[in-house]
Amino acid sequence: MGRKWNNIKEKKASKDANTSRIYAKFGREIYVAAKQGEPDPESNQALKVVLERAKTYNVPKAIIDRAIEKAKGGSEENYDNLRYEGFGPNGSMVIVDALTNNVNRTASDVRAAFGKNGGNMGVSGSVAYMFDPTAVIGVEGKDEEETLELLMEADVDVRDILEEEDSVIVYADPDQFHAVQKAFNDAGITEFTVAEQTMLAQNDVTLPEDAQAQFEKMIDALEDLEDVQQVYHNVDLG
Predict the structure, then answer these.
(1) φ, ψ for residue 32 (rounded to 5)?
(2) CATH value at residue 184
(3) Residue 102 near residue 111 (C-beta atoms within 8 A)
(4) Same domain for 148 and 123
(5) What is the dihedral of CA 138, 33, 123, 200, to 10 degrees?
(6) Where is each TACO1/YebC-like second and third domain found (predicted)?
(7) What is the count of structural domains for the chain?
(8) Do 114 and 227 fall within a single domain?
(9) Could you give the CA distance from residue 21 to residue 53 in angstroms, rounded to a whole number?
(10) Residue 2's pLDDT band (boundaries 50, 70, 90)?
(11) CA angle 141-144-149, nearest 5°?
(12) For residue 190, which of 199, 198, 177, 181 has the smallest C-alpha distance?
């Protein structure tokens, strides 16, 4: 099941390192989560999840505080959660999650990113059935056996536990996200290398070299869009 999560996160962080794009995306997501519930992560689970993710990407506290204060201030700025599904080269599958204040603009931009890079948008449900909503949580300082014992003692059910480089990665149902975190917290572990609610492909595919280059270009184009928060796919990029 492993998708080399630390490598993926490091690649995304490196790609975004010279811009403030990743911080802007988190700022928007934090604002929306805080506005839709209480602006306190202890009573707003959606906000808590976003903040845990933000920590693993080293989002500055100033960005987080500004987004929460904006929500507290009663800003009238509203965003819609949208999901697009589509296909890339050689039948590869892609899911795009967006937060937007202009649905027509976002749909047009996403469609163009697909179309200009050998892909096409599909209808709702055309791709998502091949992905599983999954909580992915990673920590350092534990191996697979220790982690399994820790989670069993806490009576937490997970799908899989894998060692990936210097981390152990836990894959679980989304509703077990906080239970897994709490089990680690109770064991004295409060820092996570990965803390994601994601969509995992049931089967990865490998593309020929030329198709993979085109696919990566398409993914980059989608991730570059201001309104796009997350892009999931079923391609093994090595």
Answers:
(1) -65, -45
(2) 3.30.70.980
(3) no
(4) no
(5) 10
(6) 79-235
(7) 3
(8) yes
(9) 15
(10) very low
(11) 95
(12) 181
Residue 49 belongs to a domain: yes
pLDDT digits (tens, 9 = 90+) for 142-177: 999 999 999 999 999 999 999 887 889 999 999 999
Tokens 């993914």, residue located: 219
**What is the residue whose two structure tokens read 């149902």?**
173
If asked whether residues 13 and 64 sit together in one domain, one would say yes
**pLDDT tens-digit series, residues 183-223:** 999 999 999 999 999 999 999 999 999 999 999 999 999 99
Packed helices 45-56 and 21-36: angle between N→C axes, nearest 10 degrees: 160
CA atoms within 13 A on the CB side of 226: 8
Residue 160 belongs to a domain: yes
Q: Which residues pair with 163 in a beta bridge?
A: 168
Whether residue 14 lies inside any domain: the answer is yes
- Number of Cα atoms under 13 Å in the Cβ half of residue 238: 7
Q: What's 41's domain CATH number?
A: 1.10.10.200
